[in-house]
Amino acid sequence: MQLKLDALEAHLAKGLKALYVVYGDEHLLVQEACDRIRAAARAGGFTDRTVFTVERGFDWSALIGATQSMSLFGDRQLIELRIPTGKPGKEGGEALKMLAAAGNPDVVTLVTLPRLDSATQKSAWFTALIGAGVALKVDPVDRAQLPMWVGQRLAQQGQRVAPGEEGRRALVFIAERVEGNLLAAHQEIQKLGLLYPQGVLTFEQIHDAVLNVARYDVFKLNEAMLTGDVGRLSRMLDGLKGEGEAAVLVLWALVDEVRTLLRIKRGVTSGKPLATLLRENRVWGPRERLIGPALSRVTEDALERALSLAARLDRQVKGLSGSSGSAGARGSEPPPDPWAGMFELAMAVAQGASPAPRPRR
Known about the structure:
Distance between the termini: 53 Å
Number of helices: 18
Oligomer: single chain
Mean pLDDT: 86
């Protein structure tokens, strides 16, 4: 059975099942879910804990043997199986089907997996696991929902932000500083609990306490581009520059997104189904729902002009003087600072227009 993460506490209060599968890439939430299951297992007398991690050459027979035997000391067991790749292979798949069918009342099994694609979720071994036990899919917290999530976490430790605009601004401030990193957000919330008593937190208190713990990820730039979030885009580029990220890598990530959009745009124009184009261009996850609005916002001409700018930026970041003849015919030279030029390039997608200069701040 599938169980929502927020229903886990109530589920465990009613009794423990023999098999749990927790899967997803949001490490903090996966860790917390597993901690709750471990605590319930200990409370239920499953005090002997064994951990298996699947690596190359893993002995699946040892796992099956452990689930079918009693502990040396007669204690009931919690067996944890970690599959970091999410790919158990043929032998592992057969072993997992055996595991699902085992049903030893003296053993609780906890299987952890990363985010799984749709094909893996339809596999025989995964279907067997969720058919025999309880599955918890741990989805990332959408960036738009992050301020609310922060507010809920503050409430759990007896704190809350001021009502109205000040409180909303405080929650957004925290969300922007952690840039989607839930573990960093968790640490900052815990720090607020240590620094201040329970009750209302002012914006000034939060501002003074919360560090800028954003971990700017060059591969998340496409999300800011596709959503048209100009403020986030500017912050991320500034952060990447400040952290010393290589300009050539950032440019590559931006250009790759522009090229993907252009291929899909041309495909849609020629009459191909969007779903087919997304699959052909390896677009999945959160990007799937962002591509459609971006395609309706941006024109083919703007994307072509963006690629022309990218060609000139590529020569600039590599320290090559001049520009190719074809590139020069499509527009003027990029700004002296390549980071300003990359902002212009990203804005071609974010605002759906030809590259425009970055505003002075």
